[in-house]
Amino acid sequence: MPKPFTPQVVTANDLFDGDVVYLTAAHGWSREHGDAAVAGNEEAATALLAAATEQPGKIVGPYLADSAIGADGRPAPAHYREAIRTLGPSNRTDLGKQAEGAA
Question: What is the pTM of this model?
Answer without folding.
Answer: 0.84
